[in-house]
Amino acid sequence: MVKTEKVNFLFPKIPTEGKPMTNQKSSGRCWIFACLNVIRTQVMKKFKVEDLEFSQNYLFFWDKASRQIHSIERINYMLEAYIDCAQKGEKPDGRLVHHLLHNPTEDGGQWDMLINLVEKYGIVPIQCCPDVQSSESSMRMGRILNNKMSKEMTREFCMKLQKLVFDGSSEEAIQKTKITMMEEIYRIVSICLGSPPETFTWEYYDSDKKYNKIGPIKPVDFYKNHIKPIYNMEDKICIVNDPREMNVYDKLYTVDYLGNMTGGKMVLYINQPVDMLKKLAMASIQAGEAVWFGCDVGKQFSRKGGGILDLNVIDLDLVFGTSLLNMSKAERLMYGESLMTHAMVLTAVNIENSWGDGDGDKDDWFSEFVYEVVIDKKYIPDTILEVLKQTPTVLPAWDPMGSLAN
User: What stretch or stretches form a coiled coil here (predicted)?
Assistant: First the structure.
């Protein structure tokens, strides 16, 4: 039974939420959508525009491909991982290689991967690189790429590279083979997604009906000259809540082989109690800045009534005499019942009577199923920022904190 009564949709919001409404459709690009939606709220204020959408397909392409050597950013990263595993003596049927082969070209990602992409390639308005069929419905392209990269079909590229390593081939021979592989994948991605612009011109009317024009300009210069001064990706910090006993708070963590760019920024997490995630998200929203967050969106979720995430929205006890909430957050992580699956944007917060009047904690869903928030360092206490100076504890590649939002 779904309960939608007493649901309040009115909260204090950031000044500009952004429009039009965006839709990732049949793809796993939520992390990109959420990032660009957070950025546009600041850009819309600066340029005084009433609607704005940045191209998700543009970043989606560069997550796959690299302009410099016609390679593939994420696939290059994974091919290097296969080589590294072979050099370390990891067996092809071992747990690590098996995990890396599971879905190496999946659509999903993490915040620090977005920093890699935006800092290197910039962003463009959607009209300069619109969605295409293979970005809106990415499954077929993913199957083709995984045919070359993953455990399905042939395990072709991993097999060939690891065989070269096991046979004692030179580094030059290994890299030459890898480049040939990446060129093949680059061709597939370019045909599926199209080629993104090297320069663009953005023309728009502001809220005063005044015509404006920026460009021709390179996407990375557009980001660095016009967007980075008001939304600096490198100033945003990932704060996670991992309550498992072995992963203590006030520590820095990363996950082995989690990334999308060789030589790029490492994925880093500062582990904090969930109440700190709430406090920091609230501070950001009250200051007018939306918050990218990662959660397990499928739990206690009802589309009825506009999409509700609440521990009490589905009453299984009434119908079946049972509950799906018999495990703690830590236990759900440990036993594979929950992990981060989706990224969205927080634009409003109830800052009054947040615990209600006897109906229970109104942010209890956040406590149980939100795992990550991205906050500008200016809202984070110095004591937490000091954690970034630590050498990160490396969690195994298959750890649930290495899950990707899609």
Answer: none
Tens digit of each residue's pLDDT (9 = 90 or more) over 94-113: 999 889 888 877 889 999 99
Rounded mean pLDDT, 149-173: 78
Active site residue 98: no
Catalytic residue check, 353: yes
Distance CA 291, CA 281 (A): 6
Measured CA to CA, the distance from residue 260 to residue 310 in angstroms comes to 33
pLDDT number for residue 152: 42
Q: What is the CA angle 315-316-320, rounded to 5?
A: 140
Name the H helices within 48-94.
Answer: 56-64, 73-87
116: Cβ–Cβ under 8 A, 6 or more apart, which residues? 73, 259, 260, 261, 264, 265
What's the token pair of residue 38? 């957070």
CA 311 remoteness from chain centre = 24
Cα–Cα nearest to 236, from 10, 79, 70, 42: 42
With tokens 């709430």, the residue in question is 278
Query: Of 12, 5, 6, which is closest to residue 350 (Cα–Cα)?
Result: 12
Which one of 85, 192, 295, 342 is the catalytic residue? 342
DSSP letter at 225 equals: I
Complete domains list, the chain, with CATH: 30-402 (3.90.70.10)
Catalytic one of 30, 128, 158, 295? 30
The C-alpha angle with vertex 120 and arms to 402 and 265, in degrees rounded to 5, equals 35
Residue 18: the pLDDT is 80
Q: 342-381: per-residue pLDDT in tens?
A: 999 999 887 654 333 444 345 799 999 999 999 999 999 9
The confidence score (pLDDT) of residue 1 equals 53
**Whole-angstrom Cα distance, residue 125 to residue 112?**
22
The DSSP bridge partners found for residue 13 are 348
Q: Using DSSP, how many helices (H) and how many strands (E) does the chain show?
A: 15, 11
How far apart (Å, rounded) are the C-alpha atoms in residues 44 and 53?
A: 10
pTM attached to this predicted model: 0.90
Strand 370-376 to 291-295 pairing: antiparallel
pLDDT tens for residues 213-232?
999 999 999 999 999 999 99
